[in-house]
Amino acid sequence: MKQILKWSAPAACLLLSLFLHTAVQGYSFLSLVFFCIAAIIVCFYLIGMMKTKHAKAAKILNTVLIGALSIGLLVYLVTGAFILDAAHRELSEVPEYIVVLGAGLRGSDPSPILSDRIHTAYAYLTEHPEVICIASGGQGENEDISEAQCIFEHLTEMGISEERIWLEDKSTSTWENFKFTLALIEEKTGGRPEKLGVLSNDFHLFRAGMFAEECGITPIGISAPTSQLLLRVNYYLREVAGVWHYLILGGQYHD
After folding, report:
1. Which residues are paired to 107 by β-bridges?
2. What global pTM score does this model have?
3. What is the DSSP string of 91-104?
4. Which of 19, 66, 115, 129 could pair covalently with 110 via S-S, beta carbons 3.0-4.6 A apart?
5. What's the CA gap between 186 and 173, in Å, rounded?
6. Residue 254: pLDDT above 60?
7. How far is CA 140 from CA 13, 24, 168, 173, 255, in A?
8. Confidence band (pLDDT; 50, 70, 90) for 3?
């Protein structure tokens, strides 16, 4: 009975990981987290089983595992602090242009993440009627229209004037969002702004700002609160990995 209870914790984590990966859309990273938790628990169990015959090796492995987990946790906490700071930073000024970064669609309907961005954009554009909005995002697999078109349709249905919304509907990554948005502004105005309002979900603003700076502009982050709690947890955890992916591989990749 004791052994059954002992192994029930990693088994439960694995089942939850499988459920989140296969049965629920949008929680793939949280699924990976639970898988890793199960793997860590199993590693500690196996090290404990080694102690009777290989006490010295078990002690070394236990120290290495604890050290690696401690470093990983510290990296997550420090990176997460930067992400949280960007998500809750107060706006310092009103930009001439804002770009609403696209996110996934379900057919032609916005995902919960994109819906959060659209509603925040509507509130911001209503409060600042002089600001021009660039709806940015191409058409991905299993999407009936481009993400930019979806943003445009919903904002205009809410009452934002069509003339205030420019469409950038070719990008397939955050880096392309900025690259093509700046090219569109230059095409329409003959110049590029030094600063650009960047509207994205709270968890994404820090990394989005890194992309913007790589393109040579100063970002003014406009935070869209993530309305679904579990999605917020999933994406904040995922975003730490995204930041380090950016730092190691650079910004010009599809994400």
Report:
1. 143
2. 0.84
3. P----SEEEEE---
4. 115
5. 20
6. no
7. 32, 20, 14, 10, 12
8. low
